[in-house]
Automatic annotation (TrEMBL):
<keyword id="KW-0862">Zinc</keyword>
<dbReference type="GO" id="GO:0006269">
    <property type="term" value="P:DNA replication, synthesis of primer"/>
</dbReference>
<dbReference type="InterPro" id="IPR002694">
    <property type="entry name" value="Znf_CHC2"/>
</dbReference>
<protein>
    <recommendedName>
        <fullName>Zinc finger CHC2-type domain-containing protein</fullName>
    </recommendedName>
</protein>
<dbReference type="Pfam" id="PF01807">
    <property type="entry name" value="Zn_ribbon_DnaG"/>
</dbReference>
<dbReference type="GO" id="GO:0003899">
    <property type="term" value="F:DNA-directed RNA polymerase activity"/>
</dbReference>
<dbReference type="Pfam" id="PF13155">
    <property type="entry name" value="Toprim_2"/>
</dbReference>
<feature type="domain" description="Zinc finger CHC2-type">
    <location>
        <begin position="38"/>
        <end position="84"/>
    </location>
</feature>
<dbReference type="InterPro" id="IPR050219">
    <property type="entry name" value="DnaG_primase"/>
</dbReference>
<keyword id="KW-0479">Metal-binding</keyword>
<dbReference type="InterPro" id="IPR036977">
    <property type="entry name" value="DNA_primase_Znf_CHC2"/>
</dbReference>
<dbReference type="GO" id="GO:0008270">
    <property type="term" value="F:zinc ion binding"/>
</dbReference>
<dbReference type="GO" id="GO:0005737">
    <property type="term" value="C:cytoplasm"/>
</dbReference>
<dbReference type="InterPro" id="IPR034154">
    <property type="entry name" value="TOPRIM_DnaG/twinkle"/>
</dbReference>
<dbReference type="GO" id="GO:0003677">
    <property type="term" value="F:DNA binding"/>
</dbReference>
<keyword id="KW-0863">Zinc-finger</keyword>
Amino acid sequence: MNIEQANGIAMTEILRKLGYYPVREKGDELWYLSPLRDEKTASFKVHTGKNVWYDFGAGRGGDVIKFACNYLVSGNDGSAVSAALKWLQAFDTYTYTTVTYAKREPDPAERGFQVLKASELKYRILTNFIESRGIPLELAQEFLKEVLVRNNRTGWQFRAIGLYTEAEGFEIRTEDLKASVGAKSISFIRGTELPAKEIHVFEGMMDFLSAFAQHEKQHFEGDVIVLNSVSLAPQAVPYITNYRNYKKLTTWLDNDEAGRDATKYFKELAVNESIEFEAMNDLYAPYKDVNDWHVQTLKSKPPSTPKP
């Protein structure tokens, strides 16, 4: 990687992978809590059009390389350009040709919640909930974040499980809550095969992780779309039709009326696109969804005998 290539990596993507998300947005300007120092009021600005940043609290800014050097200094990892280039290689990911949605203003209900910080999933109440659904913690930590959420109407803050969405928001879960932060949107997860030849469609995050766990925690070779609601099925269509390498579409939707209707919807899409289609419903019938089936299979397994 050279300097020009490094400066082409989106600052928003770097910050997202570091666990930082915009606190507010104004046109091309996104405001974050600074990743370079501790602060309570967002003063770190990213201009998405120019792909540059400025930390008003520290009085410095620049391009991607400049950010990497400053970030490595804050973590005592060295600040030379060569070190920055090596560090940035982790953010230079394979890019698909997908659809870009025009940003819209969230409706009043969506503005109710705001993510203040995203970090590794560790909060005991959340990890207990994850494990109660049969999901190994190390697996959940690979795909989910622990997000600190503020209810803007009440000022109340709480922790939740978060799955990043294509609208640059989160689908959040607690034991008692299912909600969205930002515009309601699907989540897209890349598989290990490049280019991918198969696309899997799940309704929710727990279903995806359950199938993953049943798959002996081996990554899917194909790509994955988590709908986060069957009503968002149309959002998935451009991701499937605009990417011409898919040869198979596999659905893992619920065994209820809404799930059956969505399965039919994707089957018709596969026929129209002349790609193979498979619905996995028989695998987890008579249970309502993949997660229910997964939990029951774990309960039916005989307990392991400790080794002498």
